[in-house]
Model the fold of this input.
Amino acid sequence: MTKYALVTGSGQGIGYGIAKRLADDGFHVYVTDYSAELAEQAAKQLGGTPIRLDVSDADSVAAAVAQVPELDALVNSAGIYPWLGFRDISVADFDQLFHVNVLGPILTINAFAPIIAARGGGAIVNITSMSQDHASPGVSAYSASKAAAHGVTKLAALEYAERGIRVNSVAPGTIQTEGMKNALAGGESPRESALIPLGRAGAPADIASAVSFLVGPDSSYITGQSLTVDGGYTTALFNFYRAAAYGSTKASTEALGQR
Done:
């Protein structure tokens, strides 16, 4: 029996990586994006079905639902991440950010869950961020939106469990994508080995592997959870603070070893 998955924001970046992995796993993928052109290009490469979808617009979501007769998995990867300090957040910025990053998953989950339930149940995965728990200067509003999206994950998991639908989230760390390059000030490249214990920034495929697990049978008793995929970055934050105090990661490591 053919399995069906829909991935929002899958025209490029993490979303495309997820759609590619699910296609490799045997899913027929509905490739959706705010840009119809990106959706069409990606779907052609993956052998999927393109759908233009603005997750923050209820009418757009309803139009997409009409094109999806069967569904086993929904992945909410669409998101925006403006570079805004806490004191720079305007009402317009807040509305746009929360409409896409928080209202978007709410609208898509409620719209597509009945289709998943009609297939006997399935899985939903929301792509959040490590910043849901670890805020950084310059991304405060984004962090707040992802913390809210994590809350949406837990609430949806409770409300849809009786319909056989598991809802989890994946929280990426620094992932090398087009969006990340655009978000970084001045075109700065992500710093890798100095901050990430595994010595590299992540790739979309790293997030896709986690999603593949969470929509698959091996995670059948997991719901309402968040899986952080960050190369150890958030686990080692304390060491980074010590490194700053000592002037270098090496000095901090030596100091920690002496205590």
About this structure: Residues 183-193, 248-259 have pLDDT under 50 and may be disordered.
